[in-house]
Amino acid sequence: MARTYTASEAARALGISLDTLRRWDRQGRIRVARDSANRRIVSAREIQRLRGDHGRNLSARNRLEGVVREVKIEGLLAEVELDVTRGGRLVAVITRESAEALGLAPGMSARAVVKATSVMVER
């Protein structure tokens, strides 16, 4: 039998909120089944499908190509600094595990994917 995930496990695996997963289900963007208690379950294959298509569904302005300038790892977090090709510098804080899994190192190419709906800077 194929591996299935609860709705909350699937949301975590996709990097989205449970509310977003529910909305996607109502919109038909994700294929879910129901268990005997009528709870949503998502197949591993569906999660893989969504992960593979996710980047292609983002607009070009949400992806910034660049070169890694510096990676600072401290504890569980990593600060990644990119020189983006559109001019400018971008700094992101990600998990140490993600930085290590991506093999990030100065001089290599990387892409920043911006998912936030707003950025606030206050002084």
Protein described:
With 123 residues, the chain is of the alpha+beta class. The protein has 2 domains: 4-57, Orthogonal Bundle (Multidrug-efflux Transporter Regulator, Chain: A, Domain 2), CATH 1.10.1660; 60-113, Beta Barrel (OB fold (Dihydrolipoamide Acetyltransferase, E2P)). 29% of the residues lie in helices and 33% in strands. The strands form 2 sheets. A 4-stranded antiparallel β-sheet has the order 6-5-4-7. Strand 5 and strand 6 form a beta hairpin. The longest helix has 11 residues, at 44-54. The termini are far apart.
Structural class: alpha+beta
Q: How many individual domains? A: 2
Give me the Rg, rounded.
18 Å
CATH architecture of the largest domain: Orthogonal Bundle
Order of SSEs, N→C?
EHHEEHEEEHE
Summarize this entry quickly:
The protein is of the alpha+beta class and 123 residues long. It is built from 4 helices and 7 strands, in the order βααββαβββαβ.
